[in-house]
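Lecture 7 notes: from sequence to structure.

We start with a single chain of 234 residues. Read the sequence below before looking at the structure.
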Amino acid sequence: MRAIHRSITAGLIFLLFLAGASIPPKLPAQTPAPTTSQPITGQTERPTSTPYSGDLSIFEYPDRDKKLHVDRVMDLLEIAPGKVVADIGAGSGWFTVRAAVRVGAGGAVYAEDINAAAIDYITQRAAREKLPNVHPVLGTVDDTKLPANSVDAVLILKTYHEFAHPIPLMQKLKLSLKSGAKIGIIDRNGDGTDHGIMPEVVEHEMAQAGFKRIGMYDFTKSDGQDYFLIFTAK
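Now the structure, written as tokens:
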């Protein structure tokens, strides 16, 4: 009997040993991998100028219409009564009010800027000058925040060199354009940091954003440093 008891005891000990060996070890709690922000698609960093945030009245000098040939600019962009126009980087609203008069009550002008002070300035100006067809829009560096499929013509007047992310911005803007819409860019020769940018840089970036150049002019200033490019979606 003692021999049988010893055998049973040994067997139980052996089974308990096997059971303990089959229990998986407790693993330490896993911490999720840290997330990283993704770079903006298609945008190569390049020098830009700091957006202007000073006295907006400096853009209102008396002979600016004549020097810029603004009526010819609007003719080339086919801005006419009933059209919807976007003034990107509108600043004081200098171009906004001229476009608003041209498109009339049946049209509209979106005055877009990333500077909240400029939006307030334009809002007050439109009320003062009785232009209910002006619609100020506070955008961001990557998005103009304009309605989809709403715009016939765009003018970017002396602000393209300030765009930190021009390619994604223009890709987003493309969604707001009607079929056949024209984008006009007036700027001056420069290296990006001096409130100017070379036209070939603009053309390259616009091509990456899905646009093709259909016009190039140099009448917008007599010193030969300014240029006027017109694009449409590919």
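The beta strands are 84-88, 108-113, 134-138, 151-157, 177-188, 211-217, 226-233. Keep this in mind for problem set 3.
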